[in-house]
Amino acid sequence: MTELNAMKLTWKFPVAYWSANLVELFERAAYYGMFIALTLFLTRNVGFSDIETGWIVAVFAATLYLAPTFTGALADKIGFRNGLLIAFSLLFCGYAVLGALPTKFFSLVALFLIMVGGSFVKPIITGTVAKCSDEINRARAYSIFYQIVNIGAFLGKTVAKPLRTTLGLEYINFYAAAMAGCALLVVVLFYKSVDTHGEGKSLREVGAGFIRVILNFRFMALILIVAGFWAIQGQLYATMPKYTLRLIGEHAAPEWLANINPLVVVLLVVLITHLVRSIRPVSSISIALAIIPLSALSVALSPLLMKITGKSIDLGLFALHPITVTLIIGIALQGLAECFLSPRYYEYASKQAPPGEEGLYLGYAHLTTFFAWFFGFASSGYLLDRYCPDPKTLTPAQMVHAYDHAHYIWYFFVGVGVLAFIAILIFRWITDAIDRRKEGTI
Fold first, then answer.
1. Which end of the chain is more exposed for a tag (fewer CB within 10 A), N or C?
2. Measured between alpha carbons, how far is 407 from 327 in angstroms, rounded to an integer?
3. Are 194 and 80 in contact (CB under 8 A)?
């Protein structure tokens, strides 16, 4: 039987699978190119304050992680191809409007279009991958998909830096619109909808499932605890771009620094998942939550490094600003922590589900990012306004000492990480006691 199964292993998948992956590449390149520069664009080009920007992006990013549960159900009803045509039409218009009409009203309209369009893409593409592969080859199908996601994200953030410095922030949105247009063209020419007849859930069923998940205390507690991790990781997009450019200068490359995270994940996630395979998922999650406050702490210690090295660290072929060095260390630690967290978190989430509801619980596992993005971006706006304010709001006299305590921002997120780590230890103690009582060992 094993030999028969081995003979069925293949890297050949139908056209719908490959076109879906190509669509995902364009969509991720568009989204991450736009997203890494979004807070900068809303403040510099549109005119929102740091606090206003924080709240706007908090609602946008958080809703983008909640909405797919409902748009996914709608896509099952209207068909995957129709769903993608709607999605990329909205994305193209949203990105184009964001770049062409940088007013407060039209920026909000554009972000709404991007949020709705983007919320269709992930459930449809992941659903296509599942339907275009059998049980034997599904792991291979998703491994390709995962690499495509990371390649698209890497390309988007890489392109964003030269566009920002040579043409202007608005051209990043035009680039994103072009990528969405390419994806739309692929859907029109190559994507053929897979059969979803009779398999989707109604919105009523989705809502009922949402309530069941919310009422699962253990699962919701884990979601809220792990949100502390993602609130810190989300500072790659919320705080780091403005922090880097305001303290180092316009020549800095926050877009490229952000790419360190997916690079570390791609290089190490398989190895680390293999190394921790024999320990409980909650133990692996605990390791991640022990590492993540260290990532924020490393950035917070940049003034100490600057006292030792001065404003430049000579590495032979090139020199780096001390803040750049601490950011590299901090972002690499984030990637390392993510390797311990993500695979085992979804494994743990699946084990919390009652029989037959594993898919439901895995679908709602992303709620942790919903809470994290909302809290992380909103708090970032206040912290930037207090410790690393927009230079346009300062007089020359105020600029002299305006950023003396900018690193305090990262101490706040050290605190968030420490609280999350303490919470996971308490969570383990309580749930282990409950499980022992159920098993009759107490």
1. N
2. 11
3. yes
* Domain final residue pick, 181, 200, 219: 200
Helix (H) or strand (E) holding 315: none
Q: What CATH number corresponds to the domain at position 437? A: 1.20.1250.20
- Note down the domain range covering 58: 13-200
- 385 shares its domain with 280: yes
Q: Do residues 240 and 257 lie in contact, with contact meaning Cβ atoms separated by under 8 Å?
A: yes
CA distance 182 to 92: 9
CA 103 from centre of chain: 26
Q: Checking phi first, is residue 318 left (phi over 0); if not, alpha (psi -120 to 50) or beta?
A: beta
The candidate with the shortest Cα–Cα distance to 359, out of 197, 149, 206, 147, is 206
Among 5, 38, 20, 247, residue whose Cα is nearest residue 160: 38
Burial class (CB in 10 A: 0-12, 13-18, 19+), 419: middle
Count of domains in the chain?
2
Residues 180 and 286 in one domain: no
Clarify whether residues 165 and 226 are in a common domain. Answer: no
Q: Is residue 1 part of a domain?
A: no
Q: Angle at CA 212, nearest 5°, toward 207 and 216?
A: 145
pLDDT per 10-residue tile (average), the chain, 442 residues: 54 86 96 97 98 98 90 85 95 98 98 96 86 77 83 94 96 98 96 66 76 87 95 97 96 96 88 88 95 98 94 88 97 95 82 69 82 97 98 94 96 98 97 86 54
The DSSP bridge partners found for residue 313 are: 320
Q: Whats the size of the chain, residue-wise? A: 442
* Closest by Cα among 389, 415, 270, 250 to 338: 270
The sign of the dihedral angle between the CA atoms of 129, 155, 97, 366 is: positive
Please give the DSSP secondary-structure letter assigned to residue 279. S
Q: How far apart are CA 367 and CA 373, in angstroms?
A: 10
